[in-house]
Amino acid sequence: MALNVTQIREDFPILKREVNGKPLVYLDNAATSQKPKQVIDSISHYYTHYNANIHRGVHTLSQEATDAYEQARKKIQKHFNIAHNHEVIFTSGTTDGINLVANGFSSFLKTGNEVLVSAMEHHSNIVPWQMLCEKTGAQLKVIPMSEEGTLILDEYDTLLTEKTKLVFVNHISNALGTINPIEEIIEKAHTYGAAVLVDGAQSCSHIKPDLQALDVDFYVTSAHKMCGPTGVGMLYGKEEWLHKLPPYQGGGEMIAEVTFEKTTYADLPHKFEAGTPNIAGGIAFGTAIDYLNEIGFDAIAQHESQLLEYATAELLKIRGLRIYGTGKDKTSVISFNLEGIHPYDVGTILDKLGIAVRTGHHCAQPIMDFYKIPGTVRASFAFYNTMEEVDKLVDAVRQAQNMLS
Ligand code: C6P
């Protein structure tokens, strides 16, 4: 069913504002999505009516807050088709979830072990593993990518051996929009007994992953890319892994018993949730999931692929414009450059025209090194964007080219 985008846009107060005297055209959704009033209201409702710490008090407010927070965990469980509620760990976001797992694996890895990373990762899915390798003596190897920005799976087959203990790859590349064949990557890794972590920061706003069907070991994402608030995210880990991994941080909430001689840890998921969490954020994450499901992921995918197709065709009509990330499986992210013009200059002119895009390396410097470029202009579309906004982008890029060349 086609989306009623005009009606959907009414849910997003920010889309009514102007920037530099022009109506805002927000095309930086891969950095963070905008928030519907349902999510904003859910945060405000918590602070107005039942703000209290959770899992601690016998008083009514604390119980209401605990119920709402745990209800959000259930919504996440159901949304991602996760077998057990305690396999959902609240984090502060994707970066936090990856660091939690990398930290845990420092007890298991040793010299002679290998870990594989894809060539198109965000720094969040590179640096924690480099730190892990430095600590443990394990070796980091890279699954290369092709000129069109897709992983070379034959090379993956060669890199996978009995030495491989872990594979980490993003579901969708933030800088290219490429959708990686994670089903195949997971299945092959498992034949060698390697665990797989999938970085879902860019996928969960576009698709609804079924984590049991994927048989993935760890999956991480951030609420703020899914119309939810910043500072909250989720780590899914298979129960057996979460039992094996040591806690990430020590503190309140994650313990069973503490004496000065010895501490025992709480059961899952609390073992990994030290300290007071982002309670309002967790609750509003649940509201964001409800909101997206009400719109429907099939309708979202259909609308976004129309935007992608139209924007790609129109942008490619501009002389000297090159798109990076041209594989056939891609989402509504277009990274591009104009020949002879720095992406930062294009971004600055677009901003003057009210159009928000991201410019630079997008926290994925190895991709920029691969193409030997300083960065790109990245337009990333969400389900609330319109074809008219694509036209405005294309016109503005033409204007930028005329002014800068
Ligand atoms: N990418 C972008 O503009 P956090 O910051 O923890 O919520 O997400 C980090 C992260 C990890 N992996 C991928 C694939 C990502 O895209 C991001 C965040 C934003 O592309 C901000 S750098």
Please outline the helices and strands.
Elements: H1 5-9, E1 18-19, E2 22-23, E3 25-26, H2 37-49, H3 60-79, E4 88-91, H4 94-105, E5 114-118, H5 127-136, E6 139-143, H6 153-159, E7 164-170, H7 182-191, E8 195-199, H8 211-214, E9 218-222, E10 233-237, H9 239-244, E11 255-258, E12 263-265, H10 279-295, H11 297-315, E13 321-324, E14 333-338, H12 343-352, E15 355-356, E16 358-360, H13 365-371, E17 376-380, H14 387-404
Parallel strand pairs: 3-15, 5-6, 5-7, 7-8, 8-9
Antiparallel strand pairs: 1-2, 4-10, 9-10, 11-12, 13-14, 14-17, 16-17
Helix pairs in contact: 2-10, 3-10, 4-5, 11-14, 12-14
Bound molecules: ligand C6P.
In short, what is this structure?
Helix content is 39%, strand content 17%.
Task: Give a verbal description of the structure.
- This protein has 405 residues and is of the alpha/beta class.
- It folds into two domains: 134 residues, Aspartate Aminotransferase, domain 1, CATH 3.90.1150.10; 254 residues, Aspartate Aminotransferase, domain 2, CATH 3.40.640.10.
- Helix content is 39%, strand content 17%.
- It has 14 helices and 17 strands.
- α2 packs antiparallel against α10 and α12 packs across α14.
- The mean pLDDT is 97.
Which structural class best describes the helix and strand composition?
A: alpha/beta
CATH topology of the largest domain: Aspartate Aminotransferase, domain 2
Superfamily (CATH H level) name of the largest domain:
Type I PLP-dependent aspartate aminotransferase-like (Major domain)
Whole-number radius of gyration?
Answer: 22 Å
- Count of alpha and pi helical runs: 14
**Biggest sheet: strand arrangement:** 4-10-9-8-7-5-6
- Morphology call: globular
Helix content: 25-40%
In CATH terms, what is the architecture of the largest domain?
3-Layer(aba) Sandwich
N- and C-termini, Cα separation:
43 Å
pLDDT under 50 segments (min length 5)? Answer: none
How is the biggest beta sheet arranged?
A: 7 strands, mixed
The mean pLDDT is 97
Number of separate strands: 17
CATH class of the largest domain: Alpha Beta
For the record, the count of structural domains works out to: 2
